[in-house]
Amino acid sequence: MANLPQSLSVGVSSFRGRGGMSSSSSSAGAPVNKDRKMQSVEQLVLDLSNPNLRENALLELSKKRELFQDLPPLLWHSFGTISVFLQEIVSIYPVLSPPNLTLAQSNRVCNVLALLQCVASHPDTRLLLLNVFYFSAYIPLYLYPFLNTTSKSTPFEYLRLTSLGVIGALVKVDNTEVISFLVSTEIVPRCLCTMEMGSELSKTVATFIVEKILLDDVGLNYICTTSDRFFELAQVLGNMVGALVEQPSSRLLKHIIRCYLRLSDEPRLKAMRMAYGRACQALKICLPDMLRDDTFSSCLREDPIMRRWLQQLLLNVNGNRVALQAGGFDHMP
């Protein structure tokens, strides 16, 4: 199985040359070696169509996915490959509820999702995931049942994590079309569910996705237009802040603060001014006290960017007086 944390490094590594191998082209045998390795990858893609060879092909391609720049287009344009991926994904739906997913089943589908993540990361194939209708739904929607699961067992956690990795790859590059698609298909409630009950890594990726959605005006408008959406997000963020007191995570805290900061931003679109105003007023009530005092002073001291974000958040919500009372962040060493 692919290394899961590595599979969540949304984005494609940068390699030179057609075929994308990272080995030096100055070596005399490099071109031949590169061609041989590319042929091996192409054969693995062909093996996906053979049910007897598929499991090994998925595993090997998942291991090699960051070594070949052209793997995502190859996967997308090779005949039947995306259909095979969806077939693998759908095949485990029956064991999601009641939760009977085995680790072997989870590993196999996680390899599929890791390959979909590299497709979602590539500039030539990213938007194709959103715009191509397969069977009865757009491709990302096939992942949503995995995000709806609540079992905390390892097979389900791996499945949620790699599914979030695909969505995270889509949002990493700013694109309003991607955000519009995701909010229209209700990705936010699914991320909020993971933010409440997932592992630290799953929570971090889910919060990153919500953060990227909020940073786009379409996503911010989606959250702030109705009080139900706003307060649901605020409640989840508040619960996460409280949990971090017992189990600190600077990485997760940074994403949470960035979400709060975006909710406190001044309006940039006149038509959204009322929604933004209500959101900022509401933050005065629901912003956790732990962000107003020195509870996370050690984390803030180590990360000047996070410290500035929190200071700006307090200025936006409460003005200079309260921000200064909150601990004098500027004076932290």
Provide a brief overview of the structure.
The chain is an all-alpha fold.
Distance between the termini: 44 Å
Query: Which range best describes the helical content: under 10%, 10-25%, 25-40%, 40-55%, 55-70% or over 70%?
Result: 55-70%
- Give the tally of β-strands: 2
* Count of helical regions: 18
What gross morphology would you assign?
A: elongated
The succession of helices and strands, N to C, reads HHHHHHHEEHHHHHHHHHHH
CATH C-level class of the largest domain: Mainly Alpha
CATH architecture level-2 label of the largest domain:
Alpha Horseshoe
Task: Report low-confidence residues grouped into runs of 5 or more.
Answer: 1-28, 321-328
Number of domains: 2
Instruction: Tell me the name of the CATH homologous superfamily of the largest domain.
Output: Leucine-rich Repeat Variant
CATH topology of the largest domain: Leucine-rich Repeat Variant
Derived from helix and strand composition plus strand pairing, the structural class reads mainly alpha
> How much strand?
under 5%
Mean of residue pLDDT?
Answer: 85
Largest sheet: 2 strands, antiparallel
Strand order of the largest sheet: 1-2
Work out the radius of gyration.
22 Å
Biased composition (Low complexity): 15-30
GO cellular component, one term: CCR4-NOT complex
InterPro entries: ARM-like (IPR011989), CNOT9 (IPR007216)
Region (Disordered): 15-34
